[in-house]
Protein 1
Amino acid sequence: DYRAEGDGRVEFKVIKGGSQPDISLLVELNDGIFKRKEESQAFIENVHILLQAVSRNVTLKQNENLKKGVPDVDLNLKILSATVQNMNVYNQYLPPASPLRFTEGKADLSADIQLRADDAQGYVRLITRDLQAQVDEQAASGVLSAEIKLAGGSPQDMKFDINGSSIKLDKVRVSGETKSFGDDDWSANIRLSRGKTVWRKPIQLDMEAKIDMSDSIPLVSMMVNKKGKETWLSKAL
């Protein structure tokens, strides 16, 4: 699903001989780019990636596992550091009717992911800088920190269990026609007690979460700005 380009090194080893050997592959990229295969422009830059793969029972002919579509390969992808140049690239993953649209902001990205044919473990961490968004015709800004935990799944289908993942919002500001809000001390924490996602466009998400916030003033501000209109917020409440 993704393509990475950059300067680095490739190390290729046979770790078990015979007619169907086990082979390991190590790829390290520095100051690279990262993007989906169908995308012409990279949205993740300054990438330092370390990819380790072990393929077992390799043969020039299709073995039984490959016929079933389940290659016997273990992957470990580490994004040691990377920069998301503009958070608006993630709008393509949001549902068409979503009230949220990112407009500006960068983010620091890191990850440590272990993938097998029928399992996924690890985490993806994202910390934004100067994040700005449009929420139901209102301008909003703040700091978003997300740690997405992988607790299982099917990598071939891009389906993942993300139980225990967390998202934190800080320094949220809301600007609307009637009421505005800004407080550097405001924060909200979201922790998923249950979560499943399909990482396609748009993203599919099925979850249960606990939300703790310092107060409800930002939500009240949004409601006042949209008073008399049927909005996603009034439906949710």
Note: Residues 217-225 form the longest helix (9 residues).
Protein 2
Amino acid sequence: GRRTALPRHQTLRAMLDWSYALLCASEHLVFDRLAIFVGPFSLEAASQILADGHIDSVSAAAALDELAAKGLVAVDHSDAMATYRLLEMTRAYAREKLAERGEAEAHALAFRHAAYFTGLLDHLGTTPREIYERCSRLASQLGNIRSALEWSYGPQGDPGLALPLAAASAPLFLHFSLMVECRAWCSRATELLE
């Protein structure tokens, strides 16, 4: 920005610091935790994943709505159900804030994220038509599913979630002809079983 501009308009970081300082405690918590999402996410996903002993799902949804009203979260109304998204620079800032909260909170959040997407993938259906329709709707969630898989197979991950998540995500990867990726996750699952 220009040197004569207000300090909050001179750099993106200064603007994010200024905006973050204006948030209340529950909005701070929700904003920090939104860093877990890669790409778009639904209100349902946010309210279930972000909620814990510190904030309930209704308060998390209300804080998400406030963050969207303040321009920190982008809202897409193009589908029947609105989706939310953090811009990549905003997400990077939120990741820093989440890291400041400690590893225990980040671990619990990643666990809830992986568990949510495991549950979502478990309900793809049984008939080819059901699987096709539900997989098509989950196209925008591939980033979140990959992130959940990476965490669950990582050093801080949970093997109890890794196996069911890999199994549940296989039909989705096959639907989008992501054969190499499907094979890689299934191979890691069989290695874990051995």
Note: The beta strands are 41-42, 74-76, 83-85.
